[in-house]
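Question thread 4412

I'm putting together a teaching handout and wanted feedback from people who do this every day. The idea is simple: show students a protein as raw sequence, then show them the structure tokens that encode its fold, then repeat with a second protein so they can compare. Below is the first pair exactly as I plan to print it.
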Amino acid sequence: MAPGGLFWWVGAGVLIVLELLSGTFYLLMIALGCIAAAIAHIAGATADVQFAVAAVVALAAVLVLRRSRFGRKARKEASRNPDVNLDIGQTLTVPAWQQRRARVTYRGAQWDVELAPGEPEDAQTYEITELRGSCLVVAAKQPARHHAKPL
């Protein structure tokens, strides 16, 4: 194998390893372009044709990925996204409700709390599901279920 072909195979290998670390599939699509260029090299294509093949195949693969379900990220509203707001998923207790609203101490400050639609007022613990300004929207926290192992 000529050194020019080795360039494409090494490039594809490096991109695949980097893809395993990132998990986005985009580097894998570019690696496909490198593999296509390596095949073009084996077929005897000149260097400029190899680069053109790599670019066209990688671009086509990226466009196909973008249109697939793997290329689209589901966007959450910031008020409900635990990656944006670390309070989402935290628990608190509400001693008493007044028309599905309450005022509680959370993280050392007083907060307004609103019960999410359809949630019961008699739960022991509540989980924050959304943050609207200074109002915490909560839902009843489901108890962890422990499965008994048969003897």
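The second pair follows. I'd like the answer to focus on this one:
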Amino acid sequence: MKKKLMMPDLNVATHWMNQKVTRETLLGNPTLIHFWSVSCPKCKQALPVVQSIREKHRGILNVVAIHMPLSEADLDVNEVARTAAMHSITEPILIDNTHRLADAFGNRFVPAYYLFAPDGSLIEYHMGERGALRIYKTTDRLLN
């Protein structure tokens, strides 16, 4: 089912940090969208891999973070901003406090990684602690 996914509308985010992006502004380049949460230790462990992907393919690959809260405590936008700064998340961050983005992606997990083609079609999807390394290998294979 996920293989037929087209990049959903991103305008349903409840907040934006670093930069507001839309599906339309991302089309034309491949895009990596990763779901994370401030209360997810595995997400934080995987962030250096995402940062490496972002830096290695700067100017070629769009990278977007979606913060998906796992509990009431995760709804604090200020805590998301503090955690993002602490972990050097410089890409646009969409905050999904209503889970409308998660629903549009059919996503229930963090961390989760979605790699989209320039036309917005899904190339590959991975979740869990090994997902970042798998998506790293895919971006290298496709963009090098």
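Top answer:
Good format. For the second protein you could add a caption like this: The chain has a mean pLDDT of 95. The chain has one domain: 12-20+29-143.
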